[in-house]
Design goal:
81 residues, alpha+beta, Alpha-Beta Plaits, AI-2_Isomerase_LsrG, Dimeric_a/b-barrel, catalytic activity
């Protein structure tokens, strides 16, 4: 099952670095810790952890944050009435 189809996945997007074409950025979000745990315990994630290291030149870096929000907020820098 692709990550975007997982229960509790809010988004899963890959981007290629503008500075280094061999560098990618993955931005993903899950509804809650249970959804994130289900993702890292899924068969496809475990398979990726076995297959992907051979394609990498170094250990991936990660920023992991929990955000205490339940939806989108209005953008403070731009207001349209």
């Amino acid at each position: 099952m692709p990550p975007r189809a997982e229960e509790g996945n809010l988004w899963f997007e890959w981007s290629r670095s503008l500075d280094d074409p061999a560098e990618y950025v993955l931005v993903e979000a899950f509804r809650d810790g249970d959804a994130g745990s289900a993702h890292v315990n899924s068969d496809h994630f475990k398979r990726a952890m076995q297959e992907l290291p051979q394609a990498l030149k170094s250990t991936p870096k990660i920023i992991s944050q929990t955000v205490e929000a339940t939806g989108w907020s209005r953008m403070g820098e731009m207001t349209v009435d």
